[in-house]
Amino acid sequence: MTNTALRNGLFSPDQASRLTGGRLLIKGNRDIRQVVIDSRQVEEGCLFVALPGTRVDGHEFIPQAFKRGAAAVVASRRQWEKRQEDLQSGLQNRPGISVILVEDTLSALQEMSKGYLRQFPHLLRIGVTGSNGKTTTKEILGSIMALDSPTVISQGNLNSEIGLPLACFQVREHHRISVFELGVNHPGEMDVLADICRPDVAVITNIGTAHIGLFGSREVIAREKKKIFRYFDGTQKAFVFEAEDFYSLFHEGLKGVIVPFGPESTRGFEGSEDLGLDGTIIHWEGLRIRFPFFGAHNVRNALVSISVSAELGISKSKIKEGLESVRPLFGRSQIIRGGTVTVIQDCYNANPDSFRQVFSFVSALRWQGRKIAVLGAMKELGTQSREAHREIGREALDAGFQSLFLFGEEMEDTFQSIKERDFNGTVNWTTDFERLRKELLPYLREGDLVVIKGSRAVELERLLPEMIEV
Question: Does domain 120-325 have CATH number 3.40.1190.10?
Answer without folding.
Answer: yes
